[in-house]
TrEMBL record:
UniProt protein name: Flippase-like domain-containing protein
Span list, region Disordered: 1-27
TM region(s), chain numbering: 39-60, 66-85, 152-170, 176-200, 251-273, 330-358
Top-level taxonomic group: Bacteria
Main localisation: membrane
Length: 370
């Protein structure tokens, strides 16, 4: 059996020496030229999406007219669903880390969302790590919760296309475009699910898979003239142990929390479409769910902070194709409403939570002072 050696870290602020943190927090600094190139490419990508692609579906004036027609009842429902989604995100960490209270997890989650949705890279993870350390959470607990949360967050979308396909089979007269999207999502998810199962079943396969991925990433880093990274074989094996151990102990609660989060996110998309006039004669709830599962799978990797621009373009293109070009203005407006609550919502909520969290830290410092 392979023996996994955990990387040793210097003592952290809470005196938790020798504990591990996710390697994602140990990112290398970029040169000014690299930062400038990335910033320029991000601006170019956003221009192509918002300046060329989205206007090809509908004019922004028509989108604005549709947005202003959004009723108060829809806003209330969407707000409640957004709070449910964010509560599930925080609840997952509170469930995995016993000393962490839900209130503190929620404040840390929303404060980190402000950073992750605006700053490139693993900024949100780093912000959450700093908050957890101030709350007295050990590096070990944070690292394990981070690994398990990322695994389930990225693993659940792999099975959603299968559920979407099953639901589509119960419906009559499904457009060919919707079937195509669902089958593409199913094909990709089956490959990734099979890979995940092999990694979880065999420690030897997990190690070999990590080695091959590490070699590929080092080749990519060599192409862009970056130094090679660490060997990933033992990292994948360690990930496997963390996921299996904590999932065995908390599997029922974790499945419930993450499933509720996905359902609530889908309902935000559904309510947005219905509130702006996209009826069931254009897209049924099942067809919308099928599109949601495919785009959710396609946006697992964030290219821009919060996938801003990428998510909007994919949702608009997929929904417009599934609707065969009907109600394009309403679909574009509905996607913007969906993103207002799922992307901008956490940023606005995080502003208030950051203030409350800062007060919480000041109170903790005052009580601990001699």
């Amino acid at each position: 059996m392979l023996r996994v050696s955990k990387p040793v870290l210097p003592p952290s602020p809470g005196g938790d020496a020798g504990r591990r943190v996710p390697p994602i927090l140990e990112s290398e600094s970029s040169s000014p030229l690299q930062k400038t190139v990335r910033f320029t490419l991000s601006l170019l990508l956003l221009y192509l999406i918002f300046g060329l692609l989205i206007p090809s579906f509908a004019s922004y004036q028509d989108v604005w007219d549709a947005l202003t027609s959004l009723g108060a009842a829809a806003v209330i429902v969407l707000t409640l669903l957004t709070l449910l989604v964010e509560s599930c995100k925080a609840g997952a960490f509170a469930l995995m880390i016993e000393p962490l209270r839900f209130r503190d997890a929620f404040l840390a989650q929303e404060s980190a969302a402000v950073v992750s949705n605006t700053v490139p890279g693993p900024s949100g993870t780093a912000a959450r790590y700093v908050s957890y350390r101030k709350l007295g959470i050990s590096n070990e607990d944070f690292a394990t919760s981070y690994v398990v949360n990322s695994s389930i967050s990225n693993g659940l979308p792999l099975v959603l296309p299968s559920l979407g396909l099953v639901l589509l089979s119960t419906q009559k007269d499904v457009p060919a475009s919707v079937w195509t999207l669902a089958l593409i999502g199913l094909g990709v998810s089956l490959v990734l699910v099979a890979l995940a199962v092999l990694v979880l079943r065999s420690e030897r396969f997990a190690y070999g898979f990590g080695v091959r991925v590490g070699r590929f990433l080092n080749w990519v880093r060599g192409v862009v003239r970056r130094p090679p990274g660490e060997e990933l074989g033992e990292t994948v094996v360690e990930w496997r142990h963390d996921v299996v151990d904590i999932f065995r102990a908390r599997w029922l609660g974790l499945v419930a929390v993450f499933a509720t989060r996905e359902l609530a996110t889908y309902l935000i998309l559904l309510v947005s479409l219905r509130a702006l006039g996209v009826g069931s004669d254009v897209l049924t709830a099942v067809e919308i769910f099928a599109v949601y599962t495919v785009v959710r799978l396609a946006t697992l990797v964030e290219i821009t902070p919060g996938n801003v621009g990428i998510s909007e373009a994919l949702y608009i293109a997929a929904l417009d194709w599934a609707a065969d070009g009907r109600d394009s203005d309403a679909i574009v407006a509905a996607v913007f409403v969906f993103r207002m609550f799922t992307y901008l919502g956490p940023i606005l909520l995080g502003g208030g939570c950051s203030y409350l969290l800062a007060r919480r830290f000041r109170g903790m410092a005052a009580t601990s002072a001699p």
